[in-house]
UniProtKB/TrEMBL annotation:
Record localization: Cytoplasm, Cytoskeleton
Biological process per Gene Ontology, one example term: intracellular protein localization
Domain of life: Eukaryota
GO cellular component: cell division site; microtubule cytoskeleton; septin complex; septin ring
GO molecular function: GTP binding; GTPase activity; molecular adaptor activity
Protein name from the UniProt record: Septin-type G domain-containing protein
Amino acid sequence: REEERGMSERGGIGGADLFGYVGIESVLDQMRRKTVKAGFEFNIMVVGQSGLGKSTLVNTLFKSKVSRKSCTPNYEEKISKTVRLHAVSHVIEEKGVKMKLTVIDTPGFGDQINNQNCWEPIVKYVNEQYEKYLREELNVNRKRRIPDSRVHCCIYFLPASGHSLRPIDVEFMKRLGKIVSIVPVIAKADTLTLEERQEFKERIRQDLEANGIHVYPQRELDEDPEDRILNDRIRDSIPFAVVGTDKEHQVNGHKVLGRKTKWGIIEVENVAHCEFANLRDLLIRSHLQDLKDVAHNVHYETYRVRRLNESNMNLSELVLSSWPLQNKMDKCETESHL
Ligand SMILES: Nc1nc2c(ncn2[C@@H]2O[C@H](COP(=O)(O)OP(=O)(O)OP(=O)(O)O)[C@@H](O)[C@H]2O)c(=O)[nH]1
Ligand SMILES: [Mg+2]
């Protein structure tokens, strides 16, 4: 590339080649500089039954390499039962790139005796964020950058039962899969033997297929054959069997995130022990931008089209109508460790 550039530049200087190097590729550097300066937002939501380790996994995500270099979360208090929707943000900086990672923790899902419509508060939260964004977009005086609180990804925790999907899992994922990207995981995977884990994963994949549930990454959204190969590999290995912890232990003189048991230490970030690292890599290292793109181009777009059709393109009505969500929004606690 460098060589090519050098040659065409020389051609250009000599005047012989008018169509020599113009420097279009430098747009990449310009984009990079702008992104670095502006930073970006990424929002993950965790959902699942009480006690499956959602809050613990959130802590693990923040404590693991994503954030270890730059920010040490200063909340060391014991994790207690989550009782309300709760968003925690950290600005994570790595090599000068700033990312505001927000994790939305939800209280135990489906804990009631009657779990009819238990997904409603979650559906409502997701839609409220779309609505918020839409209203900002429709404003006459728009902000330069619209704050993005839309849920880019929803991690759904499945109990490591070793059986199959429960009706509640099917109902939830069917509904939520239409409005947000879902990444299912097997919670507390340290309770399964390797064979059980493999069989369980297989069974879940079959159940998802049989129930017509589309989890992330959706096959129909693959952009090219290269994408397809990469995503097929991921589709073949979901749901990731994860283990969470908020403790560090010494192993061979190194500090590792792990769970200490009578029979040894389960290292959370060790791929030989569990698939937490695969989940983190998918979310952060390989598919972060794609998750954001899908949220914007597919899920938000669907919401936007529906809303605008509903209000019959009467934008002024939509903008001027008192915003019923405003008060409700305040009920969701938002916390920032910046
Ligand atoms: N064995 C095992 N235990 C775990 C794991 N993750 C969390 N735990 C334990 O499970 C218990 C519940 O964890 P939480 O993180 O509070 O669960 P939660 O899903 O947030 O529960 P709610 O807030 O009630 O919805 C705690 O005692 C954790 O230490 C795991 O991967 N394996
Ligand atoms: Mg919790």
